[in-house]
Design brief:
Elements (H helix, E strand, L loop, with lengths): L4 E6 L2 E6 L10 H16 L5 E6 L10 H5 L25 E5 L2 E3 L1 H8 L2 E5 L3 E3 L13 H9 L1 H10 L3 E2 H6 L5 E3 L4 H13 L3 H13 L5 H17 L2 H10 L10
Helix pairs in contact: 3-4, 4-5, 8-9
């Protein structure tokens, strides 16, 4: 039996893979714990700048393993425990990109929503399929989906449980990039390398401010943004970038 979660490295990019193809990468309690541990390890690794989350065998994730649930599989569902699907309650310090082939449904959709960016093959399918079986969204699906695509569209998906194709998902903002079938991982890794090539202190600071503003009123969010930005400036990264620009780098949108 192969490990249900694996991590590989492509320079500054850590690729965390759910590897349970016979269950369409559905997640049981043990897999959820391993997935959270893998993400935590990649986030703590100073050589890693971006995490890519994907699934093996042509499927991203079909959600919670209902066969295991029916057989008595248990996990800690208290509010202070790790997410039922693994890392869904974890706020990483580094960007996460989901590479979606096949199905990203139910808890698998919640894993995709947890990521910062989503790359999907054109024939991928997303949706709240757990609606059909009375399984609730408890990995922040009812929170992140409305924030990502708006309340009206989120309610359409949450209430109906219908399948959403990748192209419709891209139109509604649920997916950020589309690619040809079989190319989601390569496309996501290339995007991750693009992110890793950027000044990391500033990127992580602006990402953090964008995440934290959801909890704050506008004035407090402004002050939080400023505090994080001043820390970036204080790191010296901003002056170094301005010096490169002054020397001719990046003019006309050219790579720096």
């Amino acid at each position: 039996m192969s490990e249900p979660v694996t991590t590989t490295y492509d320079g500054p990019v850590a690729v965390v893979t759910i590897d349970r193809p016979p269950r369409r990468n559905a997640v049981d309690a043990a897999t959820a714990a391993l997935l959270d541990d893998a993400v935590a390890a990649a986030d703590a690794d100073d050589t890693v700048s971006v995490v890519v989350l994907t699934g093996a065998g042509g499927t991203f994730c079909a959600g919670a393993d209902l066969q295991a649930l029916a057989a008595g599989d248990e996990r800690d569902l208290s509010p202070d425990a790790r997410g039922p699907m693994g890392p869904t309650r974890r706020r990483t310090t580094k960007p996460v990109v989901a590479a979606i082939e096949g199905y990203a449904v139910a808890g698998g959709l919640e894993l995709a929503l947890w990521a910062d960016l989503r790359v999907a093959a054109r024939d991928a399918a997303l949706g709240v399929f757990c609606r059909r079986f009375g399984v609730p969204l408890i990995d922040l699906g009812t929170v992140r989906l409305p924030r990502l695509i708006g309340h009206s569209r989120a309610m359409d998906l949450i209430l109906t449980g219908r399948e959403v194709g990748a192209e419709e998902a891209e139109r509604m903002g649920l997916v950020n990039r589309l690619c040809e079938p079989g190319e989601a991982l390569a496309t996501a890794v290339a995007l991750a390398h693009d992110l890793a090539a950027l000044p990391q202190t500033c990127l992580r600071g602006d990402r953090l401010s964008a995440i934290e503003q959801w909890d704050l009123d506008e004035d407090t969010a402004m002050r939080n943004e400023l505090a994080i930005g001043l820390a970036t400036i204080g790191s010296g990264e901003t002056l170094a970038g301005a010096t490169r620009f002054s020397g001719g780098a990046g003019r006309g949108g050219a790579p720096v």
